Amino acid sequence: MELKGPTPALAVAPRRALLKPSLGAFLAVRGGNPNPQSRRLYLTWNSHRKMETPRLAPCSCMSTENGSAVTNASSGRVGEVKRVTKETNVHIKLNLDGTGVSECSTGIPFLDHMLDQIASHGLFDVYVKASGDIHIDDHHTNEDVALAIGSTLLQALGDRKGINRFGDFSAPLDEALVHVSLDLSGRPHLSYNLQIPTERVGSYDTQLVEHFFQSLVNTSGMTLHIRQLAGKNSHHIIEATFKAFARALRQATEYDLRRHGSVPSSKGVLSRS
């Protein structure tokens, strides 16, 4: 799976006193006014306007987290982690600036379905290939996939310069409504308040939902609050949670152009220490 990273360098061109050309100049470009002087004025202004658009710098970094061997991303905000233990073998790629492409195979069908929600609603490109001791139960694979996703997120974010940092979203799914609020603060914390009425959805143990998010929080350095506002159907409650999480994470990882690449913290740094 090829991950795209469309993030060129963050730079703002010096401002110049250029006035927006007249409607006549605008029409000249489109053939409505043959005046060559107006056409030159419009093209000069438009070129300068494009130069002033902030462009986002690629970042890549390396870390080793919880037994995960992390490889350097070639470009853009892309993380890649390979985590191998006696219980599981996990390979994750994550592109924060993707288009929602999902290629997930964990051996746990319901977890694959939830990872698809993260990709689709977060507009992340997500590749997950995992094998584990699911003949015992899904616990270790669920945990290690989440740990590795958190590590790829940590890598892809880099120094977190210019991002919004905070995300907040409430997702409805039929009768279910789940609110997720998060902060890419560098401080891992989970507050979890779901009342899932059944012990399983398909073959998936619903206790593993909390464990998934706790594991992801631990390695990514994220503060995450999950609250159920309504819901009776277990599948709906869990899926609404993953959708709300994806949208909140998308908000938090997107760039705030007014920051011009500065760290969104009064301390001047966001880290896990």
Tell me the series of helices and strands, N- to C-terminal: HHEEEEHEHEEEEEHEH
Question: Termini distance?
Answer: 33 Å
Question: How much helix is in the residues?
Answer: 25-40%
Low-confidence stretches: 6-18, 25-29, 49-74
Q: Per the principal axes of the C-alpha atoms, what is the gross shape?
A: globular
Secondary structure class reads alpha+beta
Largest beta sheet: strand ordering: 1-2-3-5-4
Radius of gyration: 22 Å
Q: What is the number of helical segments per DSSP (H or I, 4+ residues)?
A: 6
Q: Give a short account of the largest sheet.
A: 5 strands, mixed
- The total count of strands amounts to 11
Query: Approximately what portion of the residues adopt beta-strand conformation?
Result: 15-25%
Output mean pLDDT.
81
